[in-house]
Amino acid sequence: MVLIDTISMTSLLRLRGSSSLILTTILLLLTTTTQISTAQLTSAISTQEWPTFLYPTEYGNVTFVPTLARDTGDLIFHFEAPAVNSWAAVGVGAEMRGSLIFTFYRNLKGSGVTLCSRTTDSNVEPAHIPNSGCALISQEGVQNGIVSRTVTEYENNAAVGIVTSDYIIANVRCKNLVKTATSSPVTITPSTNKTGVEYQYSKPYTLPQLDPQSTAQPFIFALGPTDRRIRSNNKGVPLRRHVMFGHFRMDVSKAVVETTSDVPMNELAAIGTWTNRHATREGGPTQRDRGGWEGTVHASLMASAIVILFPVGVIFLRLLDMVKPHAYLQAIGCVFVVAGAGVGVYAGMFYNQTRRVNTHHQILGFIVVGLTLIQFCLGLTHHHFFAKKGLKSLMGRIHVPLGSVILLAGAANGFVGFKLTSSTYHYIIYAVMVIFVAVGLTVALFWIKVVRKREMRRWEDRREAERGFEEGKVMGAGDVEGGQVDARGGDVRDGA
């Protein structure tokens, strides 16, 4: 082709007759072939140089490759993220507030992927945006779902080995997200049809528009926790807080095509072949989240009170007859319960499920807290009354069964709470704790009942023996006194 291109057109025109026509035809064909080959080569090079954000995390690589179509204003992108995380997301915007966040997680079968467009007013769980115009691309040569990949494992940004792991793979088309000469921002109003959607964004939302000339378009990304699993086709499935998040900027001007037909879709959908280009991560090292410390503190305080402090307090009173340790433990437990409830309310503000304080776990929790405070007051009043008069009171009769109700209701509400967080691992740990304490407390109380019953029998037997001894002693003393009287009487009579 290079030789043909260097042939002088002047020399060709000098040829005469049919040979000139033949050579001219051959030259045109070769020139056309050269142009097609050059176009294909340019397309391949453009795909390889496409703006790409790729960041290796401890869980696996996060990859985002966008394409902006100038004619329709569509955003078409390829996304990869480790499937060990319960969910993964990338968003258009500099922060969570107001960003259009594309969230991905396993579908109900577990082998596919669910796409959910979300947004939020602040740094809380984003809610689903219905009718966002975003959908997974379904065409030949394009794969979406959970795919096993062999990748290089990194530690402190250094390659340490090669591992095979599952990845979330998604190829998405979003309408009206790119500025065009005739486009205008689209505002979505809340939908009243919530079929298949648990939590929708309740306010009108204006979709962002990417500037095709921007050399520093802001984006965000995040990965969900690894100790939970999501398998759902629901667009508004509850999400637990991310364990890792970050910000990056990208030169999207290099990702612009004139028409959607110019998008090399098969090349764009390639898996695991990307390197970071024209994208810069912001804010230093990717930020590790606090991991939702509020929920951890809430669960720890409530479980410590209900499963540990209160049962141990019962053992001190029933088994060891120690009133003060019982009272101290109950007081500490009450403080834990009140503090745990406060932290729980605060933690609930970050999630769509619990923001309105109307879940079964929250309602039952408030009831348990109220009964615990009443229980503590009844115990103090009963103790004061008993210490002063030495008599049992009505408060004492209520105090004992109410304590059992609190323990049972509080322990059951713990299971409801862990189910609310979708944490199977913590649910199992809590179940083991509850079973261990329940069995131990039941055995201890049964043993106390048996031992005290035996002691009561022994005490009654001892009392019977003592009573019999006293009666025998009294009867013996009476006989002696009677004999002395008779003797004296006999003496008198005899003397008479």
UniProtKB/TrEMBL annotation:
How far does the signal peptide extend, from start to end residue?
none
> What's the short name of a Pfam family annotated to this entry?
CDH-cyt
Q: Which UniProt keywords apply?
A: Electron transport, Membrane, Transmembrane, Transmembrane helix, Transport
Q: Does the keyword Electron transport apply?
A: yes
Claim: Electron transport is one of the keywords in the record: yes
Residue spans crossing the bilayer: 297-320, 327-351, 363-386, 398-418, 424-448
What residue spans carry the region label Disordered? 473-496
Name of this chain's protein: Iron reductase domain protein
| Organism per entry | Sporormia fimetaria CBS 119925
